[in-house]
Amino acid sequence: MGIFERYLSVWVGLAILAGVFLGNLSPDTFAIVAGLEYAHVNLVIAVLIWVMIYPMMIQIDFSAIKDVGKSPKGLVLTLVINWLVKPFTMAALGWLFFRVFFVDLVDPQTASEYIAGMILLGVAPCTAMVFVWSQLTKGDPNYTLVQVSVNDLIMVVAFAPITALLLGVSDIQVPWATLLSSVVLYVVLPLIAGVLTRHLLQKNSDETRLNAFVAKLKPWSMLGLLATVVLLFGFQAETIIAQPQNIALIAIPLLIQTYGIFFIAFFIAKRMKLTHKIAAPACMIATSNFFELAVAVAISLFGLHSGAALATVVGVLVEVPVMLSLVAIANRSRHLFADEPTAAS
């Protein structure tokens, strides 16, 4: 394990501090970068995510994907948690905290918007960063691709009705451009690039050049993650300083939701006797959120300065450090899972 992986939590912590400091030092610079977007997808963030996941896409072997169907339990676990559990637990926690525990701390209208933002996070399973968490837990890249792809397909048809149900309205306007652009940018195009690269480097079943190339790219993948963290916290630096109490109130149920969903998925994966390279990414996919989509919908429905938009932004702020802690937990629990030799077992 290299220095980046060994001290990744330290580097992320420093990146968070750097983002908040730089964002307050030069807010206009970050505002310009934040404005470089298409369909609410920030193009700079998209490039950095490419830097992160391109090396992972190179490792995907399409000849092995066909074997994923031989062991569908990991896929079933992810789908059940993402679509039948997580949206509803998020809505319940939002109601419990902002209608009961924090009822005297937040006015009713703002509380309703916070709950709405949390629901939007709960209904949007992650697309891009999952590949990062999968790599950090040494997950099966082929299986991870299938899980992400199936979730994306379901999201296209299920996001709007589930969101409408939980928000209690029927006129949800899903920003399809954001949804489809994100899937293309974060999954389709890097996957194509990875497949072509793998084809060019892998000749006569000799993976020497392929492995050497991936090893050279690995530090760049970690740097892409750190740069993404700096930008995300830089974008919201002024909000972090101006509204620390409200951010803390929103973060509490989000943290309970994130850790709770992870351990539910973790327990079920253990009972299902999944191998670690399937179980760990499955838990990560079930836990993380598609924050680009959640933020875009919150802004389109409630406005840029609404409580719903702030709640989704807090989801962005807690996502990386919390997921890194879950990566550490998953890696330290490797000995608890079965270890079978087949790639998709």
TrEMBL record:
Superkingdom in the source lineage: Bacteria
Subcellular location: Cell membrane
Record keywords: Cell membrane, Membrane, Transmembrane, Transmembrane helix, Transport
Pfam family of the protein (one): SBF
Membrane topology: Multi-pass membrane protein
Residue ranges crossing the lipid bilayer per the database entry: 7-25, 31-54, 75-102, 114-133, 145-168, 174-196, 217-235, 247-269, 281-302, 308-330
InterPro entries found in the cross-reference section: Arsenical-R_Acr3, BilAc:Na_symport/Acr3, Na+/solute_symporter_sf
Main location per the UniProt record: membrane
Annotated family: Belongs to the arsenical resistance-3 (ACR3) (TC 2.A.59) family.
Name recorded for this polypeptide: ACR3 family arsenite efflux transporter
Organism the protein comes from: Shewanella schlegeliana
Name of encoding gene: arsB
